[in-house]
Write the structure tokens for this entry.
Amino acid sequence: MIVISDTTPLISLMKIGQLNLLNHLFGEVQIPSAVFEELISNPRFPDESRQIRECPFIKKINVTDTNAVNLLRRSTGLDAGESEAIILSDSISASLLLMDEAKGREVAAQMGIQLMGTIGILLVANNGNLLSKDQVLECIETLKITGRHISDKLYKKLIKKLSD
């Protein structure tokens, strides 16, 4: 299984101390160079930068089709990380793209790319008995407190699936 990640799911999982879920669920996770740079370049987050640099299951990949990345950026308004993640996922026929941003998800879905966001990761972890229902809910509350937007619709859908 080839899994590619955009920036936001990684940041979210680091905020809740659950980055290792990716290793348990997927093994290696590949990130394009632009995502890697986004994750390590902010001087306000040295711990997160170190965590990404030293993470044994996150592998930085160079995207070779820069023309496709630039075209996608110009035509959609997506940032470099989202564009590279989509182009990389498409070019290597990745099994799954981890992405939270609505516009990027819409573009990737139109291209036939399988998607999962942070909430989906937490739900799969719950289904695999890696996190309890209470732990998932605690993670969601922490994400909300740290400024991650989670729509009421998505939150209600999560609660329903955790109750099943």
Q: What stands out?
A: The domain at 3-118 is CATH 3.40.50.1010 (Rossmann fold). The two ends are 27 Å apart (CA to CA).
